[in-house]
Amino acid sequence: MSAQDLRRQGLSYRLTQENRAAARGLVERNRDFACLTLLLTYRCPAVCDHCIFESSPKATATLDPGTAERVIAAISRQSPPPGLSFSGGEPFLQLDTMKRLAAFALERGMPSEAVTSAAWVADAGRTRATLAELGERGLRTLCVSYDRFHAPYVKAEKIRTAVTQALELGIRVVVNTMADPDDVRERREMLAEALALPLAVVDSCFVNVLPTSPVGRARTHVDRYYYPDHPPTGGCQFAGRIVAVSPYGFVYPCCGSVLGAPPERAGLMIQDDLTGRSVDEIAAILEDLKNDLFFNLLSVLGPYGILQELRKREPALQTRPYTNQCDACLEFTDNPLARGAAEKLLVEMSEALAATEAA
Ligand code: SF4
Ligand code: SF4
Questions:
Q1: What's the number of domains the chain is made of?
Q2: What is the CATH number of the domain that holds 158?
């Protein structure tokens, strides 16, 4: 029986009021949400080899704007409300929706960021006008990407225009760049050279160097990964702190690699389908997410820590080298043995917690 089957039956792994005292170590943490990520669409002009969503111009899945608005309304009840991130695919393909949602969120105290390929960027004037309109609606950060995967699809000139116009408007810029086993240049210097930007401009951005995980299109299109010397131990700082909503309306507890797994395999991760739900229903689902035992375990033990516990119970369960924590988490979507062992552990823990409280 899958986690979703159990959830549908109401036999969830959630920490209830009754067993909460028994799990004090898990629940007595700051469990406010830090960020809501809305994946507005899986469509994208680019077809990057490493894309976890296998986005392309042919992808059609698009988030229902009404659902997105209700999620914002529900999560903004938190005090203070979390930030809002627009991502995809390419969220600028849904520019009117993004403007509307950004304004709606700003009215509720939620500033926003947008994660983009910059493929939509035209000349400096039009780019500035678009960013200025979003800035008036609360856009505070623009995240662009540049590396060997994006380079074939997005001209450096477009990224340069987006970066310079955003900075001139006072919008913070983050440059995401995937680590490259074949290019050992220092990443800031590589970006300055490739984007023809002064190093001082790159230094005024936040440069985020990311590992590639074998998920989505990377499974078939990427054959070289960085593997650190040590396994990715420690709790996941994102589990249960970031809420992501996919274009299908599915809600996830983070915006990590598991979002790229086929939904039918991601039962341990997908908390619910928000499509057609009311604001009150969504608020209740989000509150439940905070009490989900699996996400709490991910937060405290991390995926690698959970896998080590599972291996004690299931010796046939093998681990492998992982590029990062999210790669280890993919065991819970891709490896039936790990999924099954995790579901069994969660049921047992849930029952044990309830029994402890009842005694
Ligand atoms: S730009 Fe981003 S969303 Fe688009 S294909 Fe590349 S990685 Fe995927
Ligand atoms: S480690 Fe798992 S829970 Fe944490 S961000 Fe990555 S995929 Fe999400």
A1: 1
A2: 3.20.20.70
